């Protein structure tokens, strides 16, 4: 059990079929996820051009979305003509992606959309049969990676997951991975309720608690309050608070010092934005 969980139990006890703890297993977050993220079109409009231009600029065609959840980013890319494979550990979240594929099955892109259960710790083996010579790009967006805690205090599982992402990227391909600006969250003790990913008018608040283990921030619990038809919905998700510097070192260690690495703040160059809500890392694997 992750170190921090022993002290402060925050997560659904659910275990996904993939064997990892599934924070979405009680279905509470999955049920209101699409309400929480707001209008899907306006959400993706915020960053669609950035991602699509970046991927097209690098000649990417085949993309692996490793935290597809209900499928919002995958669907955006399918609509833009990319070939997409989507995986996630939570069947409760995947259910919504599978439903969308069924609803739009007459469109060839959706008919060909591959959706599988997979766990980042075993990802390379999970997708080996469909890997071919690697994906042009691997995406892990929406603050998903931070769900992986540091069970042993040395980030070994997080490194294993990123190593698996790296192995799924073909030489010269990209990894796009993001996390909230935890440096700022640690400084202020607060999480902005609105951001480029989450713009729903229904989100009332995100209450933030930080758990320190041996003087080190080990877990951030976010209690999301969402009003739907005058009814309050609540769900709690917990995250590992990645520091920008440490996360950057981890990526560089795994991809190698010759790999390309650019960081964006809310999809803008870092110099153009102060205290972004999200950091997006773009890794370019050596050819
Ligand atoms: C915050 S949701 C984001 C989904 C989507 N990318 C979005 O932005 O709406 C995070 C997703 O990561 C998935 N996830 C967390 N840990 C995982 C793991 N170890 N392996 C695979 N998926 C995982 C969860 O099941 C969840 O669907």
**Please, what is the average pLDDT?**
89
Please tell me the CATH architecture of the domain at 28-181 and 243-284 by its name. 3-Layer(aba) Sandwich
Total number of beta strands: 11
Order of helices and strands: HHHEHEHHEHEHEHEEEHEEE
**Structural class by SSE content:** alpha/beta
User: Strand count, sense and closure of the main sheet?
Assistant: 8 strands, mixed
Query: What is Rg?
Result: 18 Å
Strand content: 25-35%
CATH class of the domain at 28-181 and 243-284: Alpha Beta
Q: Which key phrases capture this entry?
A:
three-stranded antiparallel β-sheet, binds S-adenosylmethionine, 34% helix, 287 residues, alpha/beta, 11 strands
How would you sum up this structure, described in words?
This protein is α/β, with parallel strands linked by helices and 287 residues long. It has a domain at 28-181 and 243-284: 3-Layer(aba) Sandwich (Rossmann fold), CATH 3.40.50. The chain is built from 10 helices and 11 strands. The strands form 2 sheets. Strands 3-2-1-4-5-11-9-10 form an 8-stranded mixed beta sheet. A 3-stranded antiparallel beta sheet has the order 6-7-8. α3 (40-57) packs across α4 (72-79) and α8 (156-168) packs across α10. The model has no long low-confidence stretch (mean pLDDT 89). Bound molecules: S-adenosylmethionine (SAM). It catalyses: glycine + S-adenosyl-L-methionine = sarcosine + S-adenosyl-L-homocysteine + H(+). InterPro entries: Gly/Sar_N_MeTrfase (IPR014369), Methyltranfer_dom (IPR025714), SAM-dependent_MTases_sf (IPR029063). S-adenosyl-L-methionine binds at residues 24, 33, 43, 67, 88, 119-120, 141.
